[in-house]
UniProtKB/TrEMBL annotation, chains A, B:
Function field: Catalyzes the activation of phenylacetic acid (PA) to phenylacetyl-CoA (PA-CoA).
Organism, as annotated: Pseudodesulfovibrio alkaliphilus
Protein name: Phenylacetate-coenzyme A ligase
Keywords, comma-separated and alphabetical: Ligase, Nucleotide-binding, Phosphopantetheine, Phosphoprotein
GO biological process, one term: phenylacetate catabolic process
Pathway(s) where this gene product acts: Aromatic compound metabolism; phenylacetate degradation
Classification of source organism: Bacteria, Pseudomonadati, Thermodesulfobacteriota, Desulfovibrionia, Desulfovibrionales
Family under the similarity heading: Belongs to the phenylacetyl-CoA ligase family.
Length: 429, 429
């Protein structure tokens, strides 16, 4: 029923395991130049429960950057076999190093995750993610082989060929970026196939945040079950938290990570169930452990037990980045709120674009929204009514009335990678 | 001294191992629909030496295509964990399936190959090859991790970032396409670095056929040792044959493959040391063995013992494809002959292009040749003399006088992938 019995360990045993692994992790971490200094004076015997982690300092992205390239390593570089790095286009990159043991542990977590949402060794997985320095490609790839699925390293792009492979090899599981999934479904139809006749049954769509409405739209258009997940390269990559077949939040693998949710302003834990910044600690990484990492991702713990029997707590889908927050006229807005609101309306198509502009002395938000063909009628009056309704719904959500522009299906440019949803053209003066 | 003691096994023991593995391979192969029929009536007890393989039928690319997708498999599809496929842009693709055991054996061969040319676990390898369905990327990647090198999955493209990674992580081994290596060396200089100051020491450049002269030019411009290798996806991918540190031909791993060289017209073995088509049989593949595969690649066995002590025979660099042969005015010409001749001349730059055209009723060859800046003088007479000299040298090699056009450095368009060297614009009437 589970890939690993640890998934259903009772909470007291799970917390004892966390404590033991946290103590070991701290002992290892102290061998790195960075934590050697940062944790100096720590008495590991003071760590008696997972909650004792709150006595330790946070680690930030800037800390990782300041240690680039080797300052976080706990052993000689020659004992590492893999490196992933962020692009570093906006400053010093961050680099994550893995020993063979770290890669094995990661592949196991990834295999466990895919098993939880119904993948089995009899499945055929097509990995439509780019490979390379980005952890999404190789992360899914190694986990899929570990689970024993026939793994097709298709990579990104070349839609026609992707469709041919899916049909020829009866692909049942796809790893696909959510913002590309709807475009892909449309291409399948343009090639003359019915998405209901495709062999697929599971889509892994965790690569970028998306709303529940976007997921339902993908499921409907592709005739597939789509599962959300969460990961970040600082915590290995994908496979940190994954939905089970019940699709009620993502089980965060607590034998491998300690997760906390804090108020990003105060650094204190939020009340149970409140949204805040996710903070994570590795418990099984031997080469480059990271303690209390500030992910900048906003989420909350979901209350209650999951029907699947797994005891690891579930987190809600990511509600945005602490850094992505738009501040407009003194109001805090997360782009996810706008997507959530738009995707709930049946007239709205697949794509939208938020633009921030300065007009005169005041900043404005414009939202360009694609409308489905059947609603894009020539009757000016009903279009204007729709436009007003969208603006009103958005105002209810974000407490500001944006200017809404309706456009035809396919008129907002699409990329095959992550979608650009916000363009900030405000005057910087 | 060797990654695996089998590399220096004495010939009689090696041949006994080959015979034993060939017999096992035939027994396994007969479980597939294709070989079940093709090998019907074969008595495995008739196979007593590796040479007895000549009694078996060849397998061609068309055979593989006719069995697409599953006809070559010896076990249920769910026992396979990886698939690689050719692009199939010009017809039915070919698909190669791997079990976990096959991937392990391939990674071992790849690790052994890199060890043979001096790579060690203390090295840092940057894989500049594209990943995905092409076997070159993941093949090198898995072998590098197996050997214990710190592996950077950089992928293709983004030259500036590649240079940054190489400098930041003190990359000592690069996997780079030979036709891209010279372009890359130039970019390194344009970024203001001296190639002599880069941390690299080994370039693995086996991804496409090239001449000895091209290798020496890469070594000189990059201040690196460059090693050639041979592989094809039908025989796993890279890691079939690899140069050792002596750079005198590529050791073909005879415990994993039986290699034959035949006259492509008659199918008979050529005389020892003669050039012909390489034919290969897998000896360790359990999921999808292939018997006597016609590679269409032209090479020869090199005579004598290698100073490294490895007993596995060496093949010469690939002299072309049986299919790439140009027939012009009744003469057989391999593009490699032209490259060989051009790269031997100190005035010639990095790039050239062969164009075949019809003029009136007769076909002609034009060769556009880039000349190094220091030789591209304004003195018409000396340029004309150089042009004549190139035409004469080419005529000595290919027995035809092509029309030679001299162009300035960088005037032939370059791609980041495989170089296009021949354009056939002959009238098809």
């Amino acid at each position: 029923m589970y890939f690993d019995p640890v998934e259903a360990l009772d909470r007291p045993a799970l917390e004892r395991l966390q404590t033991e692994r946290l103590r070991r992790t701290l002992a290892i971490a102290a061998r790195s130049p960075f934590y050697g200094e940062r944790l100096a004076g720590l008495n590991i015997d003071d760590i008696r429960t997972p909650d004792d982690i709150t006595s330790l300092p946070f680690t930030t992205k800037d800390d990782l950057r300041s240690q680039y390239p080797y300052g976080m390593l706990t052993r000689p570089q020659e004992e590492f076999v893999r490196l992933h790095a962020s692009s570093g286009t906006t400053g010093t990159p961050t680099a994550i190093f893995y020993t063979q043991g770290d890669l094995d542990a990661w592949a196991d977590l990834m295999a466990r995750s895919m098993y939880a949402c119904g993948c089995r060794k009899t499945d055929v997985l097509q990995n439509m993610s780019g490979y390379g320095l980005f952890t999404g490609g190789l992360g899914i790839h190694y986990g899929s082989e570990r689970l024993g699925m026939l793994t097709i390293p298709a990579g990104a792009g070349n839609t026609k060929r992707q469709i041919k492979l899916i049909r020829d090899f009866k692909v049942t599981v796809m790893h696909i970026i959510p913002s590309f999934a709807l475009y892909f479904a449309q291409k399948v139809r343009e090639e003359g196939f019915d998405t209901a006749d495709m062999p697929w049954r599971i889509a892994l769509i965790g690569a970028e945040p998306h709303t529940e409405e976007a997921r339902r739209k993908i499921e409907e258009m592709m005739h597939i079950k789509a599962y959300n997940s969460y990961g970040l390269s600082e915590m290995n990559g994908p496979g940190v938290a994954f939905e089970c077949e019940h699709q009620t939040g993502m089980h965060l693998w607590e034998d491998a990570y300690i997760a906390e949710i804090i108020n990003p302003e105060t650094g204190e834990h939020v009340a149970e169930g409140e949204v805040g910044e996710l903070v994570m600690t590795t418990l099984t990484r031997e080469g480059m452990p990271i303690i209390r990492y500030r992910t900048r991702d906003l989420t909350r713990f979901l209350p209650g037990q999951c029907a699947c029997g797994r005891t690891h707590r579930r987190i809600d889908r990511i509600a945005g980045r602490a850094d992505d927050m738009i501040i407009l006229k003194g109001v805090n807005i997360y782009p996810m709120q706008i997507e959530h609101c738009l995707m709930a309306m049946p007239e709205v198509g697949q794509n939208y674009l938020i633009e921030l502009v300065t007009e005169g002395v005041s900043d404005q938000m414009k939202v360009k929204v694609e409308i489905k063909d059947e609603f894009f009628v020539e009757d000016m009056r009903s279009l204007q009514a729709l436009q007003k309704r969208i603006a009103k719904n958005l105002c209810n959500e974000i407490l500001l009335t944006p200017r809404v522009e309706l456009v035809q299906h396919d008129s907002i440019p699409k990329t095959e990678g992550k979608a650009v949803r916000v363009v900030d053209n405000r005057s910087k003066e």
